[in-house]
Design brief:
single chain, 81% helix
């Protein structure tokens, strides 16, 4: 694949990825608006608390299998080693099913045996939560298989968009027909049903993939011969998954404990809006992850550098425009959509946007390290970044509130990027950052 094809690859699949993620984000916003206007504040809050709980538990139960499968399939598919691919898929489904069922069983025992305030308050959601967790886990695993085979846009559609679209559509129909009878648990039932339908739909194209494997002799599957090395990879991917969850939620929890709930509200809004800056980077990362793994396995470092250079160009241009927009009209956006009482979220938003802008400038450092078999180093750096974030948050939150927590998040994100960037320069002699842009001509 020459530089022209790589550029076309990014433009074609990157635009598709961006469009699907935009539809997913828009669906999420429209669903929030729909429910906010038809549920009581208490029901609305309970629904989204339970939704967050499901997503967090599902991410932990996956123990890194989606990243593992994407990397392994991308590499093995080059040489058409379908027996190896099937072995890894069976292994991943087996271990994830065990962890998920174990987690659900423990949660069920806690519900039945102990009187905990949380369980009584959310009793009408509990069984829906228990049912939703495995649905999300298996949808994400199936999506990772598609990513590994190169069907990236479809993978993004089924694990990031389809469930939301179906929930939005079904909620709209039910609300229009039943009006005042709508409750949080009813909407969550629709969400669970939407996940089930999404899982069924996601299995459809798998039949086409099955044709590639019709000559496999299942007697030759070596599922247990490489378990030790697979477990090692999964261990580091699991650490990263847990660290990401902790990074996303600990700052808010610490801020709520050490300061006020008002400051938590400011920071929550700032986090949501700051994600606009990395929307382009996320769209690019979702399509180039498998390509990084395959190019590295083929030792095509020349093409890999071109891929990284084009990727950071596109994500940087978008991030620059998004950051400039937030800088000039961020306060107007906050006041219009959230109310004047949240205008103090502008400064922490600006700080987070600067942190995310530098995140984009360094390029796809996390994906590079994870897709080239160095997930152990990535996990260590992510844990260190989490510790830095927690320590800074504990120090700054009491006095500076959401502004201090925003500074903590931005600095820990900068540390993560710099550490991985230096490792990539030294280990692979690749430069994924925008700072390399002036030297790309020699690769074209």
């Amino acid at each position: 694949m020459n530089s022209f094809n790589l550029k076309g690859f990014i433009l074609k699949k990157g635009s598709g990825s961006f469009l699907v993620q935009f539809i997913a984000a828009l669906s999420g916003v429209l669903l929030s608006m729909l429910l906010a206007n038809n549920l009581s504040p208490d029901e609305f809050g309970k629904f989204y608390f339970c939704l967050s709980l499901v997503l967090v538990i599902a991410l932990i139960c996956q123990i890194g299998t989606p990243l593992f499968l994407t990397k392994e399939i991308s590499v093995l598919e080059i040489d058409k080693k379908y027996t190896g691919i099937i072995s890894r898929i069976i292994y991943s489904f087996s271990i994830t099913s065990f962890i998920t069922l174990l987690g659900i069983f423990i949660l069920f025992i806690l519900i039945k045996k102990f009187e905990i305030t949380f369980f009584s308050e959310y009793s009408s959601f509990i069984y829906l939560i228990l049912l939703s967790i495995p649905l999300i886990v298996f949808i994400n695993i199936i999506a990772s298989i598609y990513r590994g085979f190169g069907y990236v846009v479809y993978a993004i559609f089924i694990d990031g968009c389809l469930g939301l679209l179906l929930t939005l559509f079904s909620s709209f129909l039910v609300i229009n027909n039943f009006g005042n009878e709508i409750t949080g648990p009813l909407i969550f039932r629709l969400y669970t049903l939407s996940l089930f339908i999404a899982l069924i739909i996601s299995l459809g194209p798998a039949l086409a993939l099955k044709n590639k494997n019709r000559y496999i002799s299942f007697r030759k599957l070596k599922i247990y011969e490489n378990v030790k090395s697979w477990n090692k990879s999964l261990f580091y991917f699991a650490i990263m998954s847990i660290a990401v969850v902790a990074n996303d939620h600990l700052s808010l929890l610490i801020l709520g404990i050490l300061n006020t709930h008002v400051e938590v509200g400011y920071f929550k809004i700032a986090i949501q809006l700051s994600l606009i800056v990395i929307f382009g980077l996320n769209a690019i990362n979702s399509i180039i992850g498998p390509k990084i793994a395959s190019l590295y396995a083929e030792k095509r470092f020349h093409d890999l550098q071109i891929l990284l250079t084009y990727s950071v160009k596109f994500s940087f241009i978008y991030a620059l425009l998004a950051t400039a927009t937030i800088y000039f009209i961020g306060r107007i956006i906050i006041n219009y959509f959230f109310g004047d009482q949240y205008s103090y979220a502008y400064l922490p938003l600006l700080i987070l946007c600067i942190g995310q802008f530098f995140n984009v400038c360094f390029g796809s450092v996390g994906w590079i390290v994870n897709m080239t078999g160095r997930e152990d180093y990535s996990a260590k750096i992510l844990v260190l970044s989490l510790l830095i974030n927690v320590l800074l948050t504990l120090s700054l939150a009491p006095s500076f509130g959401s502004i201090g927590v925003a500074i903590s998040a931005a600095l820990s994100l900068l540390f993560w990027n710099v550490a991985l960037y230096r490792f990539i320069l030294k280990e692979f002699n690749l430069n994924p950052s925008i700072f390399y842009i002036l030297n790309t001509q020699k690769y074209e």
